[in-house]
């Protein structure tokens, strides 16, 4: 009897396909994801310019990757909440607000890390 998610290499292929579908769904359905993905790509040359070394570059881009991760999780929370019910409910609103707060926190983290990098580069 095989497991539903498969094993070994087959499971890796299925997981990769699920990830592809998740990225595609976020791209099609979430304007914030598209904006943050665009900012992440636009940040690459600036991060390369600001970075003192490759590790520094990885940190500058890593904080943007964190924003993408948190946005995907926030979008998943919103989609699941809407799937359960479109009626206004205190707990649904709280879940969505907390997801939004997580994205905002990640963006503040980006601002702090990038401000420090800019300060270091030009002071």
From TrEMBL:
Catalytic activity, as annotated: a 1,2-diacyl-sn-glycerol + ATP = a 1,2-diacyl-sn-glycero-3-phosphate + ADP + H(+)
Write down the top EC class of this protein. Answer: transferase
Q: What is this protein called?
A: Diacylglycerol kinase
Which sites bind a divalent metal cation? 30, 78
Record's family?
A: Belongs to the bacterial diacylglycerol kinase family.
Active site: residue positions: 71
EC numbers listed for it are 2.7.1.107
Q: Which residues are substrate-binding? A: 11, 32-36, 71, 100, 114-119
* A cellular component annotation (GO) from this entry: plasma membrane
Compartment(s) where it occurs, according to its Swiss-Prot or TrEMBL record: Cell inner membrane
**Species whose genome carries this gene:** Rheinheimera mesophila
Which cofactor(s) are needed, names only? Mg(2+)
Residue ranges of the TM segments: 54-77, 98-119
Topology in membrane: Multi-pass membrane protein
Q: So what does this one do?
A: Catalyzes the ATP-dependent phosphorylation of sn-l,2-diacylglycerol (DAG) to phosphatidic acid. Involved in the recycling of diacylglycerol produced as a by-product during membrane-derived oligosaccharide (MDO) biosynthesis.
Q: How is the cofactor bound?
A: Mn(2+), Zn(2+), Cd(2+) and Co(2+) support activity to lesser extents.
The keyword Transmembrane is annotated on this UniProt entry: yes
Instruction: Reply yes or no: does the keyword S-adenosyl-L-methionine apply.
Output: no
Q: Which residues bind ATP?
A: 11, 30, 78, 87-89, 96-97
GO molecular function annotation: ATP binding; ATP-dependent diacylglycerol kinase activity; metal ion binding
- InterPro entries attached here? DAGK, DAGK_prok, DAGK_sf
Q: What processes in GO biological process is this protein linked to?
A: phosphatidic acid biosynthetic process
